[in-house]
């Protein structure tokens, strides 16, 4: 029996496991693409030769008030400071001075940022030049700009609603409910009111109690994704005049900058993401061993949820998942970790429907997975008691998890079991024909 050793990132280190090669179905990794050597040149090129839009300089005019929406500190992977300055410069070249530009941080339901965090997401030069506002989804001065066809009331940040022109920035990757992140998500949830966000995200649940999660809202699905469609309608009510989004490779380097029409340029970016993250797989396996790649993607279980979403795609129904999540901030956010106190999935589903929040829904998804499959999690020992509440089985080492999995496979009589390996599961999407 030939063995092959695999490394999986956990925290700022890694753990190894040697597995029998004949049982490895596939090592599922993203596709290599050329990285951008000159982000400045690529950004300026995208701004001046945009997708289905006039160049940014021609979209804005002297005398207009311009709001630029920027993703918050939780989206540091977008590396906004490396291209935002050139967006501001092009707005200046269009005749709009710094004093007529503002930046609105797209917190969604997240907390306000510190000055240091504003510098981290905007860059010091831009943070020193441009007025920055923190979006507050519970603010009393939100502006109602209309309702979507699904009845979602669209409340928007005052600074965005009052602007003559709105420019959205961000990054595109897959999203477990909306299909893809980026684009219209800068509006909803980015700068939307709490009522708007929760009404929209509740569309991720099926219509009937007991049916669980809607099959119309899932990773990579755009067409007929009702949550995505609702987001797009909300964005259309704001009607951003321009979009700038980054697309990153499997190593977190820039692969492309897309710019132009707020929907068309974003849609082009989603295709680029799939060229990188979409991986054709041979099939689902009895066991999936998955890591998001280490810190900061495994800083807590909430962020690590992206690992379970894609791992489940590569797993046979009722199979075994082995995840590696250090989760050094295990209790963050509190609302997520406080959601695991239910005895069965129907009880939890009813509670999510009664008071929908995004962390509550993400917790519900993990609870569902743990009810339908066996989930071992390699994590810190001090996390064990907390992790057990989620339905997962905590262990300290990958070796221990594999030993338990082998015992379970033997009890099931599975001698010809298969294993899928996902060393960067948060950025890899298994695609099965």
Task: Give a verbal description of the structure.
This protein folds into two domains: 3-28 and 281-431, LarA, C-terminal domain (2-enoyl-CoA Hydratase, Chain A, domain 1); 39-276, LarA, N-terminal domain (Rossmann fold, 3-Layer(aba) Sandwich), CATH 3.40.50.11440. Helix 10 (301-313) packs across helix 13 (358-372) and helix 12 packs antiparallel against helix 13. The protein is built from 15 helices and 20 strands. The longest helix has 15 residues, at 358-372. It is an alpha/beta fold and 433 residues long. The protein has a six-stranded parallel beta sheet with strand order 3-19-15-16-17-18, sandwiched between helices. Strand 7 (143-147) and strand 8 form a beta hairpin. It comes from Phascolarctobacterium faecium. InterPro entries: LarA-like, LarA-like_C, LarA-like_N, LarA_C, Ni_dep_LarA. GO terms for molecular function: lactate racemase activity. It holds the Pfam family LarA_C. Residues 283-410 form the Lactate racemase C-terminal domain.
């Amino acid at each position: 029996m030939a063995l092959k050793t695999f490394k999986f990132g956990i925290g700022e280190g890694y753990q190894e496991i040697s597995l029998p090669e004949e049982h490895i179905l596939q090592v599922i990794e993203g596709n290599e693409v050329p990285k951008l050597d000159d982000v400045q040149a690529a950004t300026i090129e995208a701004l001046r030769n945009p997708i289905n839009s006039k160049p940014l300089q021609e979209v804005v005019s002297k005398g207009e008030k311009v709001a630029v929406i920027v993703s918050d500190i939780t989206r540091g992977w977008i590396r906004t400071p490396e291209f935002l300055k050139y967006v501001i410069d092009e707005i200046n070249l269009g005749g709009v001075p710094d004093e007529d530009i503002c930046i609105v941080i797209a917190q969604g339901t997240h907390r306000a940022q510190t000055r240091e965090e504003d510098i981290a997401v905007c860059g010091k030069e831009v943070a020193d030049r441009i007025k920055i506002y923190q979006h507050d989804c519970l603010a009393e001065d939100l502006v109602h700009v209309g309702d979507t066809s699904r009845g979602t009331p669209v409340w928007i940040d005052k600074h965005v609603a009052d602007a003559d022109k709105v420019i959205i920035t961000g990054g595109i990757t897959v999203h477990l409910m909306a299909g893809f992140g980026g684009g219209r998500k800068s509006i909803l949830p980015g700068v939307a009111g709490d009522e708007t966000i929760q009404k929209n995200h509740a569309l991720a649940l099926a219509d009937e109690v007991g049916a669980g999660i809607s099959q119309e809202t899932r990773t990579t699905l755009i067409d007929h994704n009702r949550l995505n469609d609702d987001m797009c309608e909300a964005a259309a009510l704001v009607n951003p005049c321009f979009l700038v989004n980054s697309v990153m490779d499997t190593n977190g380097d820039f692969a492309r900058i897309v710019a132009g029409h707020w929907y068309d340029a974003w849609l082009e970016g989603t295709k680029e993401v799939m060229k990188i993250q979409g991986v054709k797989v041979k099939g689902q396996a009895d066991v999936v061993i998955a890591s998001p790649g280490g810190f900061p993607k495994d800083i807590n279980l909430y962020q690590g949820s992206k690992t379970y979403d894609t791992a489940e795609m590569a797993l046979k129904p009722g199979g075994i998942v082995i995840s590696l999540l250090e989760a050094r901030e295990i209790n963050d956010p509190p609302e997520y970790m406080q959601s695991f106190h239910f005895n069965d999935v129907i009880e939890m589903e009813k509670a999510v429907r009664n008071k929908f929040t995004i962390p509550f829904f993400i917790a519900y998804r993990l609870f569902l997975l743990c009810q339908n499959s066996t989930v071992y999690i390699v994590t810190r020992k001090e996390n064990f008691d907390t992790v057990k509440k989620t339905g997962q089985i905590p262990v300290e080492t990958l070796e221990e998890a594999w030993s338990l999995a082998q015992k379970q496979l033997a009890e099931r009589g599975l001698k010809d079991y298969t294993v899928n390996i996902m060393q960067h599961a948060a950025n890899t999407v298994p695609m099965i024909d």
